[in-house]
Amino acid sequence: MAGTMKLERRRSSIEVIADMLRLGEAGKTEIMYSANMSYHQLQKYLTFMLQLGLITKVTVGNPVVTYRVTRKGLRLLHSIEGVLEILELTGEE
Asked: Where are the domains positioned within the chain?
């Protein structure tokens, strides 16, 4: 194949999940702004990630709740970063 194909750079769900996992531990507002998503998207992703055991809900005060990455979440993050690196999609906007 002559030349290099350039993929369209719209963030995938996998990349959104990776952005959320990279935070380690954070509250909803921090996750929402850091991962650049709406509140509706945030709720959807948090529910999905909690169900899969990628994050856990931690109560650090009353009523302060944060979300913390689990071991399973860290394994997934390393896998995603490996795939993005192979596809040469890291660091591009």
From this structure: 13-84
DSSP 26-70: E-HHHHHHHTT--HHHHHHHHHHHHHHTSEEEEE-SSS-EEEEE-
CATH number of 13-84: 1.10.10.10
pLDDT band at 53 (very low <50, low <70, confident <90, very high): very high
- In this prediction, residues 78-89 reach a mean pLDDT of 86
Residue 85: how many CA atoms within 13 Å on its side-chain side?
Answer: 6
Whether residue 2 is predicted with pLDDT greater than 90 in this model: the reply is no
Residue 43 or residue 8, greater confidence: 43
Give which of 69, 49, 47 is closest to 58, Cα–Cα.
69
| Whole-angstrom distance, CA of residue 56 vs CA of residue 49 | 8
What letter represents residue 11's amino acid?
Answer: R
